Structures are given as structure tokens and as C-alpha cells.
Amino acid sequence: MTNIDVTTAHLGERAAAPAVCFVTLGCAKNEVDSAEMTKRVLSAGFDVVEDPSAADAVVVNTCSFIQAATEESLDTIFDICGLDNFENGSAKLIVAGCMPARYGADLEDELQEAKAFVPCSREDDIVEVLCAVLGVRPEASCDAFDSPYAESPSSYVKISDGCDRFCSFCAIPYIRGRYRSFPLDDVRAAVAERVAAGVREITLIAQDTGRWGEDFDEPDTTAHLLDVLAREFPATWFRLMYIEPQGVSDELLDTIAAHDNVCSYLDVPLQHASKPVLRAMNRAGDAESHRALVERIRARVPGITLRTTLIAGFPGETDDDFEELCAFLEDAEFDYAGVFPYSAEEGTRAATLDGQVDEEVKIERAQRIRDIADAIGEGRVSARIGSEMDVLVLGREEDGQLFGRAMCQAPEVDGVVYLEEGEVGDIVRVRIVDTLVYEMEGELCDGR
Ligand code: SF4
Fold first, then answer.
1. What tens digit of pLDDT does each residue of 51-66 get?
2. Domain carrying residue 235
3. Which positions in this protein are listed as binding [4Fe-4S] cluster 1 (predicted)?
4. Which of 210, 211, 294, 431 could form an SS bridge with 243, CB 3.0 to 4.6 Å?
């Protein structure tokens, strides 16, 4: 599919460099991958544009974590194929990321519109693929480009890829491969690059952040990584996302508590609380161990903000299992919870289990969990009225409203703090004066 003639112009000899547009779907991990591909493409002398209708090539970085995400990726691809520059054949489509990783040759047969497919494992080759598709040769090396990280004071850094846990409902291990930690020096370099570009908040992500370093010849820990980064970049906030319960060590909690620039925040996906359901999910724990975990976290890091993820309507989930989950959620009082009705994913073990739950029941159960989580979460947010907190000023909404983020709010999932004044990129001291659902409104404290 990519064996196109490349004996054409060097990029530097063309009147204008080809314009490439990245369209990114799915989670923050894909955003990191797109930013890395953008860097490679810019350093090879291509232009990067935001508008797909103005591009010579569009790279759609797809998500196929669940069926709904695959459908959204396909809809996006077909929308792009309907643009004038695609209809008249002047622009080329490249499909990257999770969809080619998950569906391989089947996708190539189905999606003839694409000129190349770049699975996650081959994204480092994006320049070669673009050159082949567009029939150009790259610049030897072009350093004079704006960092893709200069656009926002907040950025993600991936500390590992893949997953070995094989939860029975999840396709990620088949899409992203086995767990592999990125070397400490690579993570430091990625952080340093963003800090140099003006980033003030780094969110550390992976499929399973708590396992970082376990696979090295000389094993290391996420706590050590966090400690090194927090000391080396004292003016930068660090936030750890997606930590499986097994990774929540006392050492890690003590590291979070010890550093003012490490957000007192953890996102621990628990998925369920009933033991039989968790076992069917190929996951450890039960309601009792989950309660003990939450208590331990709060005892070691007082005031910590906690997020979790839950699945309703997993195959075999009985009324009793579901009630156990609801009761656990009432007790645990998470600040935020992501709730999903179970989605049967092709190629996963859970999709073949007996006792698949009716679609309507799944949706009703998910809604009931969401209602419980929202009643608790909104109450915890409104209890912050009158308190003071640091807020990183992030930018303006389309209507001009200034907003920022406090340490108790993770990017994209937890809401923001609306402000009247402040400079983008500054960290300001704010008093919370009002809340609306999960959003907060703050006033600058005197003198800050
Ligand atoms: S730990 Fe997360 S990424 Fe890994 S298999 Fe389970 S749900 Fe999927």
C-alpha cells in the first residue's frame, strides 16, 4: 500500500512544503502519539495544518478501544474522504493508531480510501510513510520549527506502552502489545522538552502507570520516577493517571504526599466491586479490599482527590452483584467516576462469556451508578466553596471566558475553574466562590 514512487522532489526544492493535518481521536495516549508524529513531520520539513481541507495528506490517528470508538473513527474517516481535496484526488489519507493495530489486513481490505496504514508500533516511521504516499523526499534535518508543546501550559508524557494484565473485557493488550516501560532518561527528556516549551503541568500516562520500571533489568518504581521528576522540575506540576490498584504502593503514596508539585490526585480504575464479577473480568480484589485501598490512600495522603472507572452490566452480573457495586460506591465517596455500560469487544474473552446482560439493563444500571457517583461528586465539588487553591491558567473558551485547572482536576474529565483574570501559563492563588455540577468559579486571592 505504501510502495509509491519516491523518486521525486526533495522537500526543500518544492515551492511549498506539503501540508499534513493530524486528526486525533480517542484518549490522551493518542494525543501524545500525534504530538510525537507532528514533531517528526515538522523536523522533516513538512508543514502541519489544522484544517484537513487545506492538507495534502491527512493522518487520522484512530481509536478502537471499544466498538463505539471504532465507529467514531470510521465516521471521521468518511467525513474527511468527502472533503473537496479528497474528492478531487489531490489529498491522501493515512490511517494510523489503534484501528490498524487491531484489525490489520482486514482493515486494509475494507478501507480502500486509505493510501497507507500505520499501526501504533510503526508510528515512528510516519515521515517515510508520508514521503512514499506524497512522492517526496524529506529535509535532511530541520530544527527551525515551533515545538508542538508550546501551544498549551499542560501536556501529557507517556511513561510506558502496552499492558500485560489481560482484563477479559479489554482489547488493549492485543492493540498495544506487551507492557514496556520507557527508560527514565527518555521520560526526563520528554518532560524537559515540554518544560522548555513553557508547559507547567505534566500528566504522566500509560495503560498501567503503576508498573513502570518492573520490566527493567534493574527494576525501578513509579514512586522513584515521580520523585526524580518532581525534584528536577520543581516549578512543574506532575499528575499520575491510570494506576491499577496493585500499583498503589505506600512508597508511591508517600511520594505524592511529600511533593508540593505532585498533584494530590489518583485515578484508580476499579471496574467493579463484586468478587465474582471481578474474577470474570480477570481482575483481583473485592469490595472489602477496595474499601481498604481507599482508606489507605486517604490515610496516607489526606485530602487526596480520587477518581475511578466502573463498568455496569458485565456478563453474569446479577442484581446482587450490582447492588454490591452501588453500596461500595456510596461508601467510597469518589470525587469523580467514569461509568460505562459493558461493551462486548470482538476478540476478547468476555465477549464469549455466558450471561450477557440485556442492552437496556446495562444502560439502566450504568445510569444508576452515574447518578450515585454524580450526587457524591457534585457534593464534594460544592464543599470546596470558600477554600483556596492554586490554579494553572490554561486559556479562554470560545466565548472568551478565562479558565484554568486546580490540582484536584484532571485534564478533560473533571471540569475546570473559571476565572475573571490571570495570564495563560501562570499559576494563581484562587478562592472558590461558586460551583456548577463539576465546574468551579474562582476569584484571585489578594496579592496573587
Ligand atoms: S489493565 Fe487496563 S489496559 Fe490493561 S487489560 Fe486491564 S483494562 Fe485493559
1. 999 999 999 999 988 8
2. 148-382
3. 27, 63, 98
4. 210
